[in-house]
Amino acid sequence: MKSLEESRRRIDEIDKELVKLFEERMNTVVDVAKYKKENNIEVLNTKREAQVVENAINNLKNKDYSEEIADFFNHIMDISKNFQRKAIADKAINIIKEKYTIDLVESANKIGYIDKINHLSIDAMNLYFKKDLEVIKFEEYEDILKAVSNGEIDFAFLALDNAGDGHIAKMYSFLETYDNVYIKDKFIVDDNLNVINKNKSDKLEDLNKFIILGKDKYFCKDCTKVDLLVKIDNKSKSLSHLIRYFANYNIHINKIDSKETNIYRKEFTIYINFDGSLQDSNVLKMLYGLDGDLPYIRILGTYKG
Questions:
Q1: Is 220 a domain residue?
Q2: From 5, 97, 136, 160, which residue has the greatest number of CB atoms within 10 Å?
Q3: Residues 125-175 pLDDT 10s
């Protein structure tokens, strides 16, 4: 029986060879990325990935390692795709940074609101926008979302329930229905209309929380939180694969929820809130990667922390 030190020395030797092979593989990936960029070819190729895993399993002498070799190659291919997308995405990211930002206050002229949840809605709205506006009162969420979607109002200013941290779960179905309506900001005040920093308060249930919704993909430049909606299948590793994207870019997830979207196909809708900005290249590259890897992805909105 080999000693522990002998086994470790052998692992070190093998790792050295793995590093050489990995570097050679990544150099080849660079060539693949250049070709795909020049020929406008998508990074994701699921048939090719399945074939790579199948070949790896077939090349195994000890089939007891089949699951582990599949994990190994799936992870390598994730790294490869991520690297390719970084190479392809840079130009697109610079365009997004300029195109999809907006000053909410300066852009607002006509605002809709509903006051049945919180009587401070109109006062908080005037405090937020800090200028004279044309204000329209609505009775139902469906009506105000439709007005935003149709361009009848610039923004909707809505109160959230005081329970918990003002979670927007009740509005997800509306945001899925009106897919050109986005979260633009969230706004918290106490009963005296003092603005509260959410990150510095531990008594959110006693505060008044509001959300600003608007049309199209334009978000505030200084936003630091992102709400994301994606859809994944029910494969056991789909969620861990999704989470790995955030880990690869060191992006912190604050909240993650899910619901079963289709009971027959076992498709799930995942809602994720994470720290980040659409001015951050890492965030944009991650989103670019997810967009190529998942059947559905949508930025629900961004807002200040």
A1: no
A2: 160
A3: 889 888 788 999 998 888 999 999 999 999 999 887 654 444 455 566 777
